[in-house]
Write a structure and sequence with these properties.
about 210 residues, alpha/beta, Leucine-rich repeat, LRR (right-handed beta-alpha superhelix), 4-stranded mixed beta sheet, 4 helices, about 50% helix, rod-shaped
Length: about 210
């Protein structure tokens, strides 16, 4: 019984959240206006009401859209995406794929032009090929992997150098210890010989 009540509460509040107007946006019925709010790809709302029919995202600072952001908005009839500095690399692949899935009557692609890289500036995102986008991708994780390998190599080299230095130090210490032990034994032997020479006249005088 408690589990059923908890499920009902989750469905109730989940439905309220899905129909709530996103932060930094204004809503009038099924129209959601998030335009001219200086939104970036990181400050963009993570979801919109599922019943949204008109969505305004124009004149912001968007460079890409999070994957899956618009997939649940099945009632959309109009989306404005122009006036944003879209970066046409791997991050824009979702936006391109979403635009390609839209019917011809939905003119969302108008004004969705690449702002960078320079080679693609001014091009409509919807008409870009995957090859063009993949060629302009900057795989930061490859650079990170390379940097990690370099750091690992340096770390191993330092460890090897310290190991060699330790071996050299131990050998030198062992050699010095042997020399010190030999010197001590020689000194002890010499001292015994001197003491025997000192006592020899005394032994002779007794006779």
């Amino acid at each position: 019984m408690n589990g059923l009540l908890l499920l009902c509460l989750l469905l109730l509040f989940g439905g309220q959240r899905s129909s709530a107007c996103p932060h930094l946006c204004s809503c009038h019925g099924t129209q959601v206006n998030c335009s001219s709010r200086s939104l970036t790809s990181s400050s963009l709302p993570t979801s919109f009401p599922t019943e949204t029919t008109e969505l305004g995202l124009h004149n912001n600072l968007l460079t890409s859209l999070p994957n899956g952001l618009l997939d649940d908005l099945t009632s959309l009839r109009s989306v404005s995406l122009h006036g944003n500095p879209w970066v046409c690399d791997c991050g824009v692949l979702y936006l391109r794929a979403w635009l390609l899935r839209q019917p011809a009557t939905l003119t969302s692609h108008l004004g969705v032009n690449c702002n960078s890289p320079p080679g693609l500036r001014g091009r409509l995102v919807v008409y870009l090929t995957e090859e063009e986008l993949l060629d302009s991708c900057h795989y930061w994780y490859c650079d990170l992997a390379l940097a990690s390998q370099v750091c690992l190599f340096v770390f191993v080299a330092v460890q090897a150098a310290l190991l060699v230095a330790l071996i050299v130090f131990l050998r030198r210490f062992e050699r010095l210890s042997k020399e010190a032990r030999r010197t001590t034994e020689e000194s002890f032997t010499t001292g015994e010989g001197l003491r025997e020479n000192e006592y020899s006249p005394l032994k002779d005088s007794r006779f």
